[in-house]
Design brief:
Elements lengths: L13 E5 L2 H10 L4 E2 L4 E3 L4 E7 L15 E4 L3 H13 L3 E11 L2 E9 L5 E9 L1
Parallel strand pairs: 1-4, 5-8
Antiparallel strand pairs: 2-3, 3-4, 6-7, 7-8
Length: 129
């Protein structure tokens, strides 16, 4: 049987309905360091990407409860720490301070921030034994 070839996905965007498009664009640009256009807010060549859409009704803005709306992986602990320091110094809303969880394979460190509408964005990195 011949194996089917799959096309490669280069990047993806998280689509977020927001209550105030201008405020959200400013936050993603200044606090998170994203390149913001009329089409998207992206960082690190789409390593982190969002499509921000003005909600017609504020009741349509519904961040996930108790978990992230998006999650991004970072290369290592020092890169994660640098990212956290950058976000914090830029005025990002810290939702969860960096925490380390130990596993038999190594450790996982993560933190999260929130945007003005309460969407949670997690960031994490692994450290193998």
């Amino acid at each position: 049987m011949q194996e089917k070839t799959k096309a490669k996905i280069e990047s993806s965007l998280t689509v977020l309905l927001v209550s105030d498009l201008k405020k959200s664009k400013d936050y993603y640009q200044h606090a998170l360091g994203c390149e913001v256009t009329e089409f998207w807010a992206v960082r690190d060549d789409f390593g982190l990407g969002f499509k921000l859409i003005q909600a017609e009704d504020i009741n349509d803005v519904k961040p996930n409860k108790g978990t992230w709306n998006t999650y991004a992986y970072v290369e290592d602990f020092s890169s994660l720490d640098a990212l956290y320091d950058e976000f914090k110094s830029n005025g990002a809303i810290v939702n969860m301070e960096p925490e380390v969880s130990e596993f038999d394979w190594g450790a996982w460190k993560e933190f999260s921030i929130k945007d003005p509408d309460g969407y949670s964005i997690g960031f994490g990195a692994a450290k193998k034994k």
